[in-house]
Amino acid sequence: MTKGIESDNEVSETRHHPVRSQIRGAGYFSRIGPGIVTGAADDDPSGIGTYSQVGAQFGYRFLWAAPVLLPFAFAIQETCARIASVTGHGLARVIKARMPTWVLFVTVFLVALANTVNIAADLSSMAAVVNMFIPGPQLLIVVVIAILVGTAEILIPYHQYAKVLRWLCLSLLTYVAVLVVANVDWGQVLTGLTKIDVGWNRFDIAAIIAIAGTTISPYLFFWQAAEEVEASNEMPDTAMSHIRAMRGDVLVGMFSGVFVMFAIMTTTAATLNAEGITDITSPEQAAMALAPIAGDAAGIIFALGILGTGLLAVPVLAGSTAYAVSEAMGWRESLERKPSQAKQFYAVIAISMVIAVALNLMGINPMRSLVVAALLNGLTAPILMFIIWWLARDKQLLGEHASPWWSSLLVAIGAIAMAALPILWLFAPA
């Protein structure tokens, strides 16, 4: 069933959460590591900046994107998790075994590049938030955050570090709290959720590309697959109870991520857009703009959420890069291994963080970095989605556990739509 995929017989001794034999019952929070962390990492500072800008600029008009994108986000993440669960291998290693070599290295390069640029932008946003409370040199704060996050990811065994990441997921509740205190017009919210209103112009199409690219990001594909392998102790697990639990796990994670997207867009529409503030250039600017409108507490809560999600997302970005590169090169990979047992894997994490810091030291505009990362994600995502769609239908690879028709259909439609959006943008009037 997994013919042609080499395996490393040395496995980690400790799982960072128990095998999911069920999706209900006491202690569930301790068992939903991969799905909930992936969904929460989707709302990183760069994503918060994108959703804030869309809400401020367009008001409630694009809230329909939340219910529309959720099934596609769920389907692609469920498919990545399925491939990893059945084969016992990460996404890049499976691509390496089943696809031409050039396909593997082009996709891994694009993902690694986009991830590193994204880390740079996230570090800049996190430093700006820290600077709101503890004044100091922005670049120094960037360096300190990078060292703390990188050191923790490299030195702390992942079964312990993952517990911290799961609790950091609760930082997403800050945006629900801001939504509660904001003066929201729920009638307009209902209209925005149920009425698809897209003008035939580049501004509207660019907004859809930004939302879709931020919600369905390639780094999440690699992370989800890699953490499914870690969760199963690097052994295939094809029990239906596990598949159902994995599916519930992914659904919870992606629903939480998309719901927070809805909360941020609704909050900024009700506050910033309502006050005529339509140009937000960074997530921390959104936090500062919220304060005089929705109260100081709302601004502080919004800012702390940026910091919390950044502490969650940066390790995911760096980790997904390390998994992708290491699997492509045939190196040992696992956040559960000691640095001496996976030197190249941890070197990729360190190099990714160093380059991200260097981009900040070079004075690269953080918002420009976000644009570049979004464009790279937008180009890479549909390519990877087509590859994953093909792999998920491969009976020789997955046997009876190949993706069901509904999942294949959703992944295919999502890939076609994301590939078509840039073409539509080119032909749309300015």
In terms of DSSP E residues, the strand content is under 5%
CATH class: Mainly Alpha
Uncertain spans: 9-29
Question: Looking at this structure, what is the CATH superfamily?
Answer: Amino acid/polyamine transporter I
Provide the domain count. Answer: 1
Order of helices and strands: HHHHHHHHHHHHHHHHHH
Quick summary:
The chain has 430 residues and is mostly helical.
Describe the protein.
The structure is a single chain. 73% of the residues lie in helices and 0% in strands. It has a single domain (28-427), classed as Amino acid/polyamine transporter I, CATH 1.20.1740. It has helices at 33-41, 45-58, 65-87, 91-98, 101-133, 138-155, 158-168, 173-181, 186-194, 202-215, 218-231, 240-271, 283-294, 296-329, 343-361, 366-392, 395-398, 405-427. The model is unreliable at 9-29 (pLDDT under 50). It has 430 residues and is mainly α.
Helix-strand blueprint:
Blueprint: H1 33-41, H2 45-58, H3 65-87, H4 91-98, H5 101-133, H6 138-155, H7 158-168, H8 173-181, H9 186-194, H10 202-215, H11 218-231, H12 240-271, H13 283-294, H14 296-329, H15 343-361, H16 366-392, H17 395-398, H18 405-427
Helix pairs in contact: 1-11, 1-12, 1-14, 2-10, 2-12, 3-11, 3-12, 3-16, 3-18, 4-14, 5-6, 5-14, 5-15, 5-16, 6-15, 8-12, 8-14, 10-16, 10-18, 11-14, 13-14, 14-15, 16-18
